[in-house]
Amino acid sequence: QLQASGGGLVQPGGSLRLSCAASGFTFSNYGMTWLRQAPGKGFERVSSIDSRGTSLTYQHSVKGRFTISRDNAKNTLYLQMDSLKPEDTAVYYCTLGSYRGQGTQVTVSS
Question: What percent of the chain clears pLDDT 90, i.e. is strictly above it?
Answer without folding.
Answer: 95
